[in-house]
Structure formats: C-alpha cells, structure tokens
Amino acid sequence: MTYILGINAFHADSAACLIRDGVTLAAAEEERFRRVKHWAGFPAESIRWCLAEAGIGIADVEHVAVNQDGKANLGWKLAYAASKRPDVGMLVDRLLKKHERAGTTEHLANAFPDQEVRAKVHAVEHHMAHMSSAFHVSPFAEAAVVSIDGFGDFASAAWGVGRGTELAMDGQVLFPHSLGIFYQALTQFLGFPHYGDEYKVMGLAPYGKPVYLERMRKMVLLQDDGSFKLDLDYFRHHKEKIDFQKGDGSPNFGKLFGQGMVDLLGTPRFPDEPLEQRHKDMARSAQAMYEEAFFHLLNALHAKYGLDAVAIAGGCGMNSVANGKVTLRTPFRQVYVQSAAGDAGGAIGAAYSVWHKLGGARGPAHDHAYWGPRCDDVAVEALLTEQALYIDKLGCIIDAPCDEEALARDTAQALADGEVVGWFQGRMEWGPRALGNRSILGDPRRADMKDILNLKIKRRESFRPFAPSVLREAVPDWFELDGEVPFMMQVYQIRAERRAQIPAVTHVDGSGRLQTVSAATNARYHRLISAFRDATGVPMVLNTSFNENEPVVCTPAEALDCFLRTRMDRLVLGTWVVRRRVKAGTDAV
Asked: What is the mean pLDDT of the chain?
C-alpha cells in the first residue's frame, strides 16, 4: 500500500488530505480545527486527523506532496525582478515565504516529535496541483483543464489537457497579470476587505447593471490567444509589498487597487458605509468583466482542443455564477468543478499528481465531498448525556433516536412548520460549502426565511442569497438547465413559473446556487428532502452552512454550542434531536 499525504501549507485555506493507492481516505481544512477562518500556516491538525482516520502514523507515509514549487517559473521571476525593479520589501517577503514553505520535513518532525518522518517530499507546481485536483478526481477520461486564481508560483492561470492519468500544461498567465487579483481588488474597492469576500460581490451583482463595463475593460485586456493581461496602472501588487497575514493565522490582504482605479471609478466604499446603486452597478460590471475574460479563454481552449468536457479549479473556480453559464456561453457540454476548487483543493491535486507520476491508476471520481471528520451516535449520546442538565436549563428537550423514516418525516414537518433546523450528520464536507452534513436548513417556500435566518443565526448582509438543496431527479422540472451539481459550484436560472413557489432560495435575478442531492451519495439527506417533497410538493430545502461568523462546525460539541447560543429551533445530531420547548420567535434580537 502506498500512502500519499497532500498538503496546502502557508497559504490561505491550509489543508491536508490522505490517499492510499489512488483512493481518497480523508481530507479537511485546518480552519475547522483551529476555528480561524481561512487559516494560513502549516496544517498540523489536519494532518494529525487524516492519519488518525486511516489508523496510521507519519512514519507510514511514503510521499508528501506540497502544492507549491519554488523553482517553477524561476526564469520569469528573475527576469521580472531585474527589469521591473519592484519594491525590495516585496521581494524579501516572497523569499521569506519560500523559505517558510521549504522545510516541510522539519514541520512534520515538529508536529510528530515522537515519530520518524521517512516520506519523500514532492514540490508540485501550484497550478499543476489545481489542474490535477480538477481532472484526476473528475468523471472524465479526457477533458480540457483550466486553473485560474490570484497567484501561485508566479502564475495566475494555466490550462492544458487531461487524458487518462496524463495531464499536460501547455499555457499560463504569469505574474503580474491575474483575473483573481482584478476581482479581489474590486472586492476591496467595494468595501469588502476580508479574504474570501468575493462571494459577496457575486451576491451583490444581480442588484446592479453593468454600466461600468467599459471602464472594467480598461483594466482587463483580452488577448488574441484567449489569455488576458491587466493594465497595471490600476493596481499595486506588481510594485509594492502587499501585507498578507494576521497574527492569528488568518489571511489578510493589503490594498490591491491603486490611485488609477480611484481616478477611473471614483471614491472607494468604506466597509461601514451604506451600499449605493453605483456600488451594485460596479459589482455587476466586475462580474460581467470576469465572465467576459473567463469565456474568452474557454472558447479559445475549445477551439484549440475540440473536447466536450472541461474541468475547472483555482480560486476563481469558486465563481459559481460564471460556472453555471459555461454550457450557455461556450461549446463545452460537460463541466466539473471539484468541491474544494480553491487553494485547499491543491492538497488533493498535489497528492494525485504525485500518485500518477508514480504510475498509479485512476481512482474513483469524487461524486461527493464527505471526506472529513465523522459524527456517530455513540459520541452524540455521550455529549448529550454530559450536557443534559445545561440543555434542560436553557429550555430544550432531548429526543432519543427514532428510525430513519420517522426522523426524515418529523424533521421535514418541522421545516414545513417554519422551524430553522441545524442538521449535523456523517462526515464533514471537504471544501467551503455545507452540503447536507454540516448544514442549517429552512423552508424555501417562505418569503421571510432569509430574514429569519439572518435574524436568528447568520447576521450577514441581506443581499446575499441562500442555496437550494434539490433532489437530483427534480432538477429539470425546477431549473432551466439540467446537470450534476453536487458541490454547489454552479448557479442556474430557476424556471420562471417556479420562482414564486420558492422565494427564499430565488435570487433577485431569478437564479439559484443549487446543490443536487442523490440517494447514492447522501441517503439520509435525500430521504429528508424526499419527505419534505411529500409534505409540501417542493423537492428541495434551503441550505446554508452550520456556523455563526466562524468556520463551519466540525464536532458535535461545536454544533450543540452553536445551536444553544443562536435561535435555531431544532438540532438534529445524527439520529438524536434537541429541540426548544418554545419555538424561538422572529422578533428583533
């Protein structure tokens, strides 16, 4: 047996995975253990859990794959430094990060001081890891493969073709040009300063019109070969040091936009300022510019390769709005975006890249994302027994387990009655999306459900949409497109005649960021949604992540704590149920 440990280290969304003979055994992001969003550093806790899940020690691991290679694009790095003479602090900062990432064996030894580290460490170029994460776990035997993000190993995008176990990169966009940096800079300009806030711009965009698109085209310049460049007069990242990380391990990017962007677009918005129509129009224009560049590249790749399928990864692969339009705006007919398309997924890609270089065969496709720590009823019973008096004191009742059908029926009825339900099951999802194992659920038919969720739990911007988890077999009846979307990575238009039935999951533009649910990959969640369909005629539930301004809950204890400190009505932990004696109201908190 060959064990390969894949890691994304010293970058946002630090993560680890473990594969054995080409089969994924475990994968998790470090933030779930550290409880710091997007934690950046060495993923010691994720590694520790992956090894424990497999029942092995670090000495049993033969290969460690890291999704970063300091030697990649070295010639361009040196040429750029010599010709552009950027800020010395920027160069020193990059060298320090390279040194930080170089000592993987030492970091493993420090994490496991009582064990011998025997593994050979492999450096996998950042975008090759992304591409492998997209293709090698896809259902495709052959596909065009695309990686787009901010930067990694001095490149921001790469593409090529995957066939069987082979994966060839034959094009890149190199530093300082980057679609990810463009979108992140606009995100900051619009007053969303935190790493990962780009999804807020996607949510805000449908409220605006693309009236700034011509100005966006001054920043992003499409090239004849399908690639893109930035007009650097609008940005800072190419010449100045950009701060990256906070002391608590969370990523924190400094300002990316320059004075040129201010001159072009006007005064930037501060985070505490109200959102005006011009901000909504800028968001729509930024999304439109991203899509224009994205589809320009994809259409060029289809013309070049002539393949039917495309696999997409990289941080920009999280742009679910654009992903949902691929079959509409390009000739590609099949699309696969893996569940951790961003940098966390580079851990999977690095591991599979090494496995196939060693001559390993393709393993099973990832048709689900349940690779994290598991929940079992024995642990839940122990937790609830220990906390029984406290739970009772807070006005809640513990119901003993019932059979599967009764659990689905009772929970579905609670949802239909307007309850907000914490749903904690099985193994935690790999990637940023809650996919029915670490989810908060609601009734999609209630027009006020978004407000109820924001009031009781989420406390987030009112313009952000909530997602529908829909029975796979019901998709064509409710959405304008039909397809497998198991990871909530694509947005489809909801059929016009259906929108009034599900206002809580229908965005202002008539779209929904759906998750397709099948009995084969999540039987209990499928059974619950089926029971809700039987009770209401609607084959979906509203699904949002199980958290309150924190990483998604990982353990039953974290789920219970989140339930008790918020105003959820019911918590389903495995087959156990905790419910409030008096349903929480919706009056102001």
From this structure: 94
Q: Which residue has the higher pLDDT, 255 or 246?
A: 255
Which structural domains are found in the chain, ordered by start?
3-126+357-366 (3.30.420.40), 133-341 (3.30.420.40), 373-580 (3.90.870.20)
| Type of residue found at 176 | P
Instruction: Compute the distance between CA of residue 63 and CA of residue 353 in angstroms, rounded to an integer.
Output: 11
pLDDT in tens, 411-468: 999 999 999 999 999 999 999 999 999 999 999 999 999 889 988 887 778 888 999 9
> In whole angstroms, what is the distance from residue 53 CA to residue 565 CA?
30
Structure tokens at 537: 């005629």
CB of 489 closer than 8 Å to CB of 199: no
Q: How many residues does the chain have?
A: 589
Residues 6+ positions from 162 with CB-CB distance below 8 Å: 131, 135, 136, 138, 140, 142, 143, 145, 168, 311
Which token pair is 45? 């806790």
**DSSP-based three-state secondary structure for 511:** strand
404-407-413 Cα angle (round to 5): 140
pLDDT at 247 (0 to 100):
65
Q: State the sign of the Cα–Cα–Cα–Cα dihedral 316, 457, 278, 329.
A: positive
| DSSP-derived secondary structure for 361-396 | PP-------EEEEE--HHHHHHHHHHTHHHHHHTTE
Q: Could you say which DSSP state residue 480 is in?
A: S
pLDDT exceeds cutoff 80 at 243: no
What b/e sequence results for 437-448 when a residue is b if at least 16 CB atoms lie within 10 Å of its CB, and e otherwise?
A: bbbbbbbbbbee
Band (pLDDT 50/70/90 cuts) for residue 84 is low
CB 401 within 8 A of CB 574: yes
pLDDT at 83 over 90: no
